[in-house]
Write a structure and sequence with these properties.
The longest helix is centred in the last third of the chain and has 23 residues. The chain has 3 domains: 165 residues, Rossmann fold (3-Layer(aba) Sandwich); 38 residues; 119 residues, Zinc Finger, Delta Prime, domain 3. Strands 1-3-4-5-2-6 form a 6-stranded parallel beta sheet, with helices on both faces. The radius of gyration is 22 Å and the shape is globular. The chain is built from 16 helices and 6 strands. It is an enzyme of class 2 (transferase). Keywords: Nucleotidyltransferase, Transferase. GO terms for molecular function: 3'-5' exonuclease activity; DNA-directed DNA polymerase activity. Its EC number is 2.7.7.7.
Length: 346
């Protein structure tokens, strides 16, 4: 498997290349469809896997790639042939993969040089298999030059290349790229299924983590590894928002701005989940929540959080998340958000 520099050693260690279809949790109908297409050889030149982060899109794409490169030419990788072994070892000459690269504290992005490298690979004949497979994870995060380069190739694709595109943000993918790939939409995993998998692994707080994972096993695994301190900080901020002093705002803004982009985005995600929980609780006190272990605390917040106030805070949080994705001082953006949020609280 030829890899671009975007795939770090840490990423590969966190998620080894999956062995076969049994390594994917859920999505049974999608797997049946892909296995049938693989066996029949009726795959289009490009597939785009869409759905929330961490639900198994890239793992599914990788198993499909391994199936198609396998010498057995069936609907699943045999795991024994040289091609299967080379794919698992990361040295198959007909498989290429790129994921977004984070530089500094900004959002991860796929840049033009990475796309240039894989398109050069696409122009060459396969060395072992009947096709070359190029997996692009996070296709929505391409910069403009990279997206246009990919589009040009998708418009006139080589006959021996299959593109597997993966995205967490379908609407952010260039419409002309979307129109040239067949969409495979992945739904969230049931909360109970995620909790059962975590319990099988002996992970504590399985139900709480499963609820916060929002249908994503990958997110649940990350939460289990990192703990809930970031979530607790976001909820603590919400409970003290009405009493924040200006010096408190400066301190919180500096702390949030000093985190990585992923941490800032996760913090905002927890805050947005809590705001959604408040809206749900207002309609139904027994409703299912994201923060299942904090129901009593959120219920106590209801008198200070009328519906319109919650909606305004959700809107401001969405604006901040978009601004975090730009090359703007995150601490200053966080400070502006906290000041607006304090004004919303009156």
């Amino acid at each position: 498997m030829a890899k671009t520099k975007e795939i770090s050693a840490a990423e590969e260690e966190r998620e080894p290349f999956p062995h076969d279809w049994s390594d994917i949790r859920g999505h049974a109908e999608i797997i049946r469809c892909l296995r049938r297409l693989a066996a029949d050889g009726h795959l289009p030149h490009a597939l785009i896997f869409t759905g929330a982060a961490g639900i198994g899109k890239r793992r599914t794409a990788r198993v499909l790639a391994r199936t198609l490169l396998c010498a057995a030419e069936g609907n699943a990788p045999c795991g024994r042939c040289d091609d299967c072994r080379m794919t698992a070892a990361g040295v198959h000459p007909d498989y290429f993969e790129v994921i977004p690269e984070a530089r500094g504290k900004g959002a991860a992005m796929i840049r033009a040089d990475a796309v240039r490298d894989i398109l050069i690979a696409a122009s060459e004949s396969p060395q072992r298999a009947g096709r070359r497979i190029i997996l692009i994870d996070g296709v929505h995060s391409m910069n403009e030059v990279a997206a246009n380069r990919l589009l040009k190739t998708l418009e006139e694709p080589p006959a021996t290349v299959l593109f597997l595109l993966v995205t967490d943000a379908w609407d952010a993918v260039l419409p002309t790229i979307r129109s040239r790939a067949v969409r495979i939409a992945f739904g969230p995993l049931p909360r109970a299924e995620i909790a059962a998998e975590l319990q099988r692994r002996g992970i504590a707080h399985a139900e709480t983590i499963a609820a916060l994972a929002d249908g994503s096993l990958g997110r649940a695994e990350t939460l289990a590894a990192e703990g809930l301190s970031l979530r607790d900080d976001a909820l603590s901020f919400l409970t003290i928002l009405e009493t924040l002093r200006i010096e408190d705002i400066w301190k919180h803004a500096e702390q949030l701005g000093g985190r990585s982009y992923d941490e800032r985005a996760a913090w905002l995600g927890y805050l947005q989940m809590a705001l959604r929980d408040l809206l749900v609780l207002r309609e139904n006190a027994a409703a299912e929540l994201y923060h299942v272990d904090r129901r009593a605390e959120l219920t106590e917040l209801l008198p200070a959080m009328p519906r319109q106030r919650v909606l305004l805070l959700m809107e401001e949080a969405g604006v901040l998340l978009r601004r975090f994705g730009a090359n703007v001082n995150p601490a200053l953006q966080a400070e502006a958000f906290f000041l607006r949020a304090r004004q919303v609280m009156g």
